[in-house]
Amino acid sequence: MRLQTVFIDGDQGTTGLQIHERLRGRTDFRLVTLPADARKDARRRAEAINECDIAILCLPDAAAREAVSFIRNPEVRVIDASSAHRTQAEWVYGFPEMAERQAREIARARRVTNPGCYPTGAIALLRPLVEAGLLPRDYPVTAHAISGYSGGGRSAIDEYESNDVTIAAPFKVYGLALEHKHTPEIERYAGLTHRPFFVPAYGAYRQGIVLTVPIELRLLAPGVDGERLHGCLARHYEGARHVDVMPLADARAMAHLDPQVLNGTNDLRLGVFVNAERGQVLLSAVFDNLGKGASGAAVQNLELMLAA
């Protein structure tokens, strides 16, 4: 039986290097990359893409669109780790746990768009609640997230890991124009009818995300409380290999959330923190922005596609 060929375009970027590391030692497919002097050669890239079975694009958005335009072989399948195609209807959204049939759709897809890191957490929390009717589609969603500086790519890594400690701030809130490119992605795949309020930040640590969504119970239907919200998430992700919903008792015992606790994994941990007296609930998601938020998700989607 012929081994399928997997080509990584952009393998020296942060995500590409992480995918390499996660695929190290695998023998169930043949991994192809270009030598250093050919990585920016359009002809060589086009040849490699058209000769492979599955291409993984770890590129800036414009370069990812260019790579897709190179494809002439109708049998080539693509996983795009950029944000170039995330809200396009003809691309399958690469979040296997998002919906009941999502993993099957990814497995048979020709074009898969990897989720963004922040949207992974927000959609994981919101979509099951919206689909169950517990959270109105027009709920005024606010999401705050802090990521390790690797989420800013090579330039941010260079800035924070410079020997000059005066260069990088210990904490940066950004996206202040309220036009972050992940916001439409969250709105679309969470099933919302109004644009969410999204506030991202970077911290002075390399990787890991904590994302939180506050919920006011007075804005929900009568009888919807923290326990029902938790039960909905627990049922949705029951049996999921890479998504875990903390028991309410564990959440009550927690004093803080550590964004780095799942680093190096492809796991996502969801929490529901309830103050019934105040009528408030805090939803949380913790995961590795380079794992479930990027390379881990790409490898998970690759495995689904290889097995199809």
From TrEMBL:
Domain annotation Semialdehyde dehydrogenase NAD-binding: ranges: 5-106
EC primary class: oxidoreductase
Top-rank lineage group of the source organism: Bacteria
InterPro entries registered for this protein in UniProt: AGPR, AGPR_dimerisation_dom, AGPR_type-2, NAD(P)-bd_dom_sf, Semialdehyde_DH_NAD-bd
GO cellular component: cytoplasm
Catalytic site: 117
Subcellular location: Cytoplasm
Pfam families: Semialdhyde_dh (PF01118), Semialdhyde_dhC_1 (PF22698)
KW Acyltransferase (keyword) present: no
GO molecular function: N-acetyl-gamma-glutamyl-phosphate reductase activity; NAD binding
Annotated keywords: Amino-acid biosynthesis, Arginine biosynthesis, Cytoplasm, NADP, Oxidoreductase
Single GO BP term: L-arginine biosynthetic process
Amino-acid biosynthesis listed as a keyword: yes
Spans traversing the lipid bilayer: none
Enzyme Commission number(s) from the entry: 1.2.1.38
Catalytic activity: N-acetyl-L-glutamate 5-semialdehyde + phosphate + NADP(+) = N-acetyl-L-glutamyl 5-phosphate + NADPH + H(+)
Pathway membership, UniProt: Amino-acid biosynthesis; L-arginine biosynthesis; N(2)-acetyl-L-ornithine from L-glutamate: step 3/4
Similarity annotation: Belongs to the NAGSA dehydrogenase family. Type 2 subfamily.
This protein's name: N-acetyl-gamma-glutamyl-phosphate reductase
Species in which this protein is naturally found: Trinickia dinghuensis
